Amino acid sequence: MEARLTLPIETGIDREIRELMDRLGVDAVRNSDGTELPDWVSEGIAKVYSTYFPARGDKEWEAQSAGERVCQFLMSDPVTASSADPLEINVMRGYLPAQFRPDTDCDRGKYWQVIDRTTGRTLAPEEWSVVAAAPLPLVDPVAKVGEYPAEAASAIVTIAAPEPFHSYTVNFLAQQVWDSTQMYNYLTNDWADDPKRTKDQPYDVAYHRTWEHVRSALARWLQDHPEVDVVRFTTFFYHFTLVFDDRAREKYVDWFGYSASVSIPALEKFAQQYGYELTPEDFVDGGHYNTPFRLPTKRFRDWIDFTSREVAAKAGELVREVHEAGREAMMFLGDNWMGMEPYGPHFPAIGLDAVVGSVGSAATCRMIADIPGVKYTEGRFLPYFFPDVFNPEGDPVKEANDSWLTARRAIVRHPLDRIGYGGYLSLALKHPDFIDRMEAIVREFRSLHTESGGLRPANARPVVAVLNAWGKLRTWQTHMVAHALWYKQIYSYLGVIESLAGLPFDVRFLSFDEVLETGIPADVSVLINAGTRDTAFSGGQAWADPRLQTAVREFVWRGGGLVGVGEPTAASPAQGPFLALADVFGVDREIGWTLSHTRHPVATEGHFVTTDLQERFDFGEDPGEVVTLGATVLAQSEGSVRIAVHAFGSGRAVYLAGLPYSPQNSRLLHRSLLWAAGAEAEWASVLASTNPQVEVAYYPDVNRCFVYNNTDQPAGTHLTGPGVDEELELAPMEGRWLDL
Amino acid sequence: MEARLTLPIETGIDREIRELMDRLGVDAVRNSDGTELPDWVSEGIAKVYSTYFPARGDKEWEAQSAGERVCQFLMSDPVTASSADPLEINVMRGYLPAQFRPDTDCDRGKYWQVIDRTTGRTLAPEEWSVVAAAPLPLVDPVAKVGEYPAEAASAIVTIAAPEPFHSYTVNFLAQQVWDSTQMYNYLTNDWADDPKRTKDQPYDVAYHRTWEHVRSALARWLQDHPEVDVVRFTTFFYHFTLVFDDRAREKYVDWFGYSASVSIPALEKFAQQYGYELTPEDFVDGGHYNTPFRLPTKRFRDWIDFTSREVAAKAGELVREVHEAGREAMMFLGDNWMGMEPYGPHFPAIGLDAVVGSVGSAATCRMIADIPGVKYTEGRFLPYFFPDVFNPEGDPVKEANDSWLTARRAIVRHPLDRIGYGGYLSLALKHPDFIDRMEAIVREFRSLHTESGGLRPANARPVVAVLNAWGKLRTWQTHMVAHALWYKQIYSYLGVIESLAGLPFDVRFLSFDEVLETGIPADVSVLINAGTRDTAFSGGQAWADPRLQTAVREFVWRGGGLVGVGEPTAASPAQGPFLALADVFGVDREIGWTLSHTRHPVATEGHFVTTDLQERFDFGEDPGEVVTLGATVLAQSEGSVRIAVHAFGSGRAVYLAGLPYSPQNSRLLHRSLLWAAGAEAEWASVLASTNPQVEVAYYPDVNRCFVYNNTDQPAGTHLTGPGVDEELELAPMEGRWLDL
């Protein structure tokens, strides 16, 4: 039996740990923050993981590399000129001097910018001046921030002759003087109370000296830690964007943000390689900092590409060091992951052995499992063995069940190679019911590798591609702000990929650029375009390009399928319909310009798409008025179309107002995709379950299926498919293997 | 006593009518559709009104003027080319051949257009051809439409070599072969069942022959009708846009639409006067037909101006004829009112004696009452004496009460000069309770003229201007689609003017152009900008003009007030905040681009603005996420700011998410305007009522006030103000005069 299980262990409870490792079949162990591994781990009972931070925490190097901090372009608060008199802007207002200091020594004509936001004009450097200034005091002081570093500072920009009543901002280069993740832990996890800790200032491998140091430090560390089998990089060099405000509260968070990957040497190298210079505004982006919800600019995508190539080259060298020392290199997909784009073109060449990531949803589970170019993947499961759950009042079994039911849908479709846990095992051992449940989960997880014959379950014929501005680069990563957190504005769309993560389809992610460059791949049967207007996910202005419109129109006309969710293909045009492909969908979004058009909507009952829609359709947040231009309306509310289907040439389109994840909505998407592909006759080709709460995976090669109840209640279903016609009753959460 | 009352009368009930006229003090009578006036009206007991239709109904002229029909530019349904093969478009698909026929005889290179809607390119006339075609059959035939006219037809446009998968439309000139209002009555009021009626084809006074006929016909009619004292024009020449579909259902309705004011002679005259030619697309407007919700183009405003000047000149001549015959000329503000813009620059010169209009809301009541350049105004009150209400099961008293409570708020602020009723008096006489109630209403109406000393009540100091793209031209006419009808998308904004219509403020309507040309008038204290994004009412791209932004910013900074409702100043910018004046409001609209900005909203309790907000704030339709950038939040829900206040320089701004009309919301607006103007200390300067359901009007010159209960329940309030500090209890609906 392959064990496939990683546990955190610690000193002082040797007997219990060894018993548990035997019982669960643990084949890898790790320490946790604040725990030590027992000596006997070097006896080879299990692989030993150890976290490794390449770009922070070496206090000696930190002291020697003051000029080589990670940098970030920040935008000052906008300030409105109330006259033509000189206008002063304190650039650090609203920021935390404990996190950033303005770089006033750099070439400010190049790395600072003053912009009139009323007109969009960048002022000439002669029109403004900078003086250094003392840091602004912390508003409502937060003890946990402690003393400001000695170098804390601000700067005041003076615009000599502003236009009265125009609004101005300053883009400025700032050095990061406190690591973002560490700050987060100080502020939220009481690290401030631990006198052993000191604040880390991250250093940047873009500087040659620092890079040389990082390489040699790893070599030394490998020598000093012969017991470590797997170096778990956490992660590499650049943190996602995480900025704190002057009250030490989170101010800005973008899990996909490249703001903290900036340095003067990198910008100079970029200019050499790409033949043009990036400006601070290319990063600041009018204060939007290239949020993934904005249609990405060519310049920003160039920066991602550049950074990824740089990061891949350097990460590749560290991985090589690890391999040369006879160890494995694993990446934790978190914190400093910028540039380590697992679905980007430079990733496979890094040569990592494994990726481990936190499993929060089926989609994040697939995001890890589907990563190409690594030997194995590992999912870190919830709950952590931390006191917030593992206490006498806590219910760790419930947390484990929720986590498993959520992730299992994805794991069935593409099994992670391993699962693991984190935290303090001593806490978990006090909850024997949790240990029992963990044992059962691990057993079920292993069965997906063993009972399946090591194969993935069969997919329905239609190949599905999620079409947006990002495409493959953001595989399973659409509509996300902060990693796996719920936002009111995104859940109605996240449900699309959450559903897909557990549905029997081959799922791709396709970018508009790919369509323009090489067309829609021949094997794709259905496209999904999901999102609110003005975003990279629906596409916004990308749809103003007639080539994109005609490519998708032709694809559908010739028999393809198109599923739109929310405000698909919304293009804010000067004329014509609001949805660029309104003719394909047979619906349009009403934004106040067509109120004079009298509508006579009629909802149709009974359709393949809505067959399993038992309750009122929950589309989440209202995307706004949608009207039919000829589509058959399957659901409407408040005068607005919520589900509609439409034939277009030989193809078909489905419109859905939103799709928060639920078993019912997942089923609705499942049927929409089949219908759009004209494949409704194949409904049961990979087995079908009448109850949307019960899913089934079909393994034709071993003539078996796995049926799983996604609820914590008993559930019945009727299975049909090749050679199957069977009523089943499943226990709460049960997963059952059936021989066919 | 001035009688100020118009009643519909009829033959056959002479005694009852004479008694009622004495009792109510009727001083004008009119017939209704289908009734005759008794002979004795010529005795001079009361003025006699008679409706007059200048541009239709003369069957003899209709027969002689086949080439002089009213025309309209229509857009065909969009058709997508599925190959490069010739593409045929039947231009009348979706239209009713009983209403329109394509004008295939005109210069089609000029008056027809084929547009590639995927690129916006207008095709050269050589790229397409036209052939006449038989009319498409009526879908689901509607008997009431009857036979098509002999000239019913369609036309097929063939695009020789379309771009595959582009969408094409045809703009074409069509002749209107059935009057729109008459059609409406045939289809909805059973006129089709009346064999005496025949279908009217409207003729156009833009043709010289028709114009000469219309003039002489009026002269003859005046000679033939010596008993008529007041010629009630219904209305003049051009109908608002009202188009029926191929099922004879309403397809397009725009109370402000100028689509049916088109003719070749008018277009030619326009080109001479304005120095450029309008194209069909200037009217078709990408299928939006210049809905008033779109930011109006210069070309469309030129057309309104041109048509209004033409209409005013011709209407002026007819009015002169009426005056020369010793009669009065009255305009019914309805149906064929296009070009008779009562708030436009050409209106006063027409020399009308009076305007009469239907009173549906306080705002429409003010729209009539405030019209400049006429001697008197009259409001036609509800209910009509029609069988739908005046039947044994009907409750005409309730209808009368609802109508009076709605209109009274406006009438108090600016009294109409007269009120009137319509329909069949014989029906009303069967409801003595209704007659009693009418008598009381008329008495209360007259008291507003007599008890007030003939003066309007005092206003609070702040002068309020509603700022949008239309300004004065659409005084009291914002956010309307079809006259006085409820639409889900507008009620949250209509409440603003409905509230204003009854509040003690001097209210103006100001356009962006006026602000750009002559600045914000010096006596204006507070601006209101209300509407959804992308509309003429919030302003859309108009706010991209830095001059407009700075004018309003400076106005507020120097002490002015700004009240924004919904998505005020939303400008869809490429950079910076979404609301152009986000810095003034201290809030911004979140459209998916700032999700990474972490918000820490805190709602503040207790503020002058929300003092009377007893229940949860009902803002109507959700305008979308709004976040604070520094404003004080007074109400929030679902993570979104609903009410916020913000100081900006010496001025103040208030943000409201929406304002459906209710006494509570009217009060909220009242307080918002005072606070924004920095005038909260003057709250009681024109008397204040603690209960928002009870309003008060103050007449300082006669030292009186009028207190009125806007509900059908007893209501108490506490009045305060100059020399007043009094508890009051009012009966349901009561209006009470108090000497101070």
TrEMBL record, chains A, B:
Its EC number is 2.4.1.211. GO terms for biological process: carbohydrate metabolic process. Residues 464-680 form the Lacto-N-biose phosphorylase central domain. Signal peptide: none annotated. Pfam families: Lact_bio_phlase, LBP_C, LBP_M. Residues 689-738 form the Lacto-N-biose phosphorylase C-terminal domain. It comes from the Bacteria. This is 1,3-beta-galactosyl-N-acetylhexosamine phosphorylase. Gene3D superfamilies: 3.40.50.880, Glycosidases, Golgi alpha-mannosidase II, Immunoglobulins. It is an enzyme of class 2 (transferase). Residues 4-458 form the Lacto-N-biose phosphorylase-like N-terminal TIM barrel domain. One of its GO terms (molecular function) is 1,3-beta-galactosyl-N-acetylhexosamine phosphorylase activity. The keyword Cytoplasm does not apply. Keywords: Glycosyltransferase, Transferase.
